């Protein structure tokens, strides 16, 4: 999970299906959050609501992990949150599965569970920092580096990538919900999507001036 200027992005992979649909939470102009490990998607929504109120990632995390309604279940959750300034923050409950670890930096946070080793989140952030290209490309490069360094203890089967910028929807939202090589498949999807990303934003904002789709029936 990273911040790049006004953009926020999340890349994620898992041994379980459709991980991005459950884990990744983003709000333009506000921040990013992830609810992992025996996932409760409402926690991601709650983290973003807190961030929208005051913009403080540590305060948002404390409010959600300390809420009475979450008292019995929060030990099972792994949460990350990143706001408009500062590093990301992490909660890993006492019942987080397997080997788990996290790493934070200015404008970034990574966390995982059921890992092959505690070095994986650090590998991901280092690879992101060293990568070049668009935010989406750097995130996929980092995700591939983490998988190549061992990733989860077992094989991963789903992966996803999402980015928000200066419009009220995800400018990138790509998912591989079940495959033997989901991160490689995600990279292939990105190669198709990225050259067209900005055109689709223009179609949403000003369809009269946007490029045509270049498909039969497009006038």
UniProtKB/TrEMBL annotation:
Coiled-coil residues are none
- Would you say which domain of life the source belongs to? Bacteria
A matching Pfam family? DUF1028
Protein name, UniProt field: DUF1028 domain-containing protein
Q: What is the organism field in this record?
A: Streptomyces yatensis
């Amino acid at each position: 999970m990273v911040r790049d200027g006004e953009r926020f992005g999340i890349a994620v992979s898992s041994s379980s299906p459709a991980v991005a649909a459950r884990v990744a939470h983003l709000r333009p102009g506000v921040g990013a959050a992830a609810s992992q490990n025996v996932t409760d998607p409402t926690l991601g929504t709650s983290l973003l609501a807190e961030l929208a109120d005051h913009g403080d990632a540590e305060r948002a995390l404390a409010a959600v992990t300390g809420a009475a309604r979450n008292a019995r279940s929060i030990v099972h959750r792994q949460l990350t949150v990143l706001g408009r300034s500062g590093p990301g923050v992490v909660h890993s409950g006492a019942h987080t599965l397997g080997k788990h670890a996290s790493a934070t930096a200015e404008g970034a946070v990574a966390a995982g569970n059921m890992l092959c080793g505690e070095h994986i989140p650090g590998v991901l952030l280092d690879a992101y920092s060293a990568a070049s290209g668009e935010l989406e490309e750097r995130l996929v490069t980092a995700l591939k580096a983490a998988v190549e360094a061992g990733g989860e203890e077992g094989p991963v089967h789903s992966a996803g990538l999402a980015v928000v910028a200066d419009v009220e929807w995800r400018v990138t939202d790509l998912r591989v919900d079940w495959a033997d090589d989901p991160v490689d498949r995600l990279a292939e999807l990105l190669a198709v999507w990225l050259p067209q990303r900005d055109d689709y934003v223009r179609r949403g904002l000003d369809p009269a001036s946007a490029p045509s789709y270049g498909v039969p029936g497009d006038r």
